[in-house]
Amino acid sequence: MNTESPHGPMISSGDVEGTDVYSTASREKIGDIRRLMIDKRSGRIGYAVMSFGGFLGIGEKEYPVPWQALKYDGDLEGYVTGITESQLENAPGESDQAWKDRDWETQLHDNYAAPYYWEPMPRI
After folding, report:
1. Which residues touch 59 (CB under 8 Å, ≥6 apart)?
2. How far apart are alpha carbons 105 and 94 in whole angstroms?
3. What is the pairing mode between strands 29-38 and 61-66?
């Protein structure tokens, strides 16, 4: 079954994984999306776990980034973000327990100046 919808607003999570992410400022590739973290209760995407850096997969690091910090760019066929290297360096450390800790999530969102995914979304 083809889950891709290239001309519509929906996309399969499988099609998001592996998508390149570019710098808003330089338009250069800075990483790619490895997986999405979805809130089980609301169904909202909370985070994209991204891979940054490295060469041929060596030296890459994965960081959870608030989904709201990424915007899709059709011209690049990827996501763009204004995330800086210092924001990555200052992000709170990830652990298995972090995903159960709202204080950790708050620190992460504040570090990236991203809205909290668990707050009500504005109506469109």
Report:
1. 53
2. 10
3. unpaired
> What's the angle, vertex CA 53, arms to CA 50 and CA 55, rounded to 5?
125
Could you read off the pLDDT tens digit of each residue along the chain, which spans 124 residues?
444 455 567 778 888 888 999 999 999 999 999 999 999 888 899 999 998 876 555 667 888 999 999 999 999 999 999 988 888 888 887 777 788 889 999 999 999 999 988 887 666 6
Q: What is the pTM of this model?
A: 0.80
Q: What is the widest separation between alpha-carbon atoms in the chain?
A: 43
Give the pair of three-digit tokens for residue 110.
């504040």
Strands (E), 6-92: 20-23, 29-38, 45-52, 61-66, 71-73, 78-81
d(CA 49, CA 51): 7
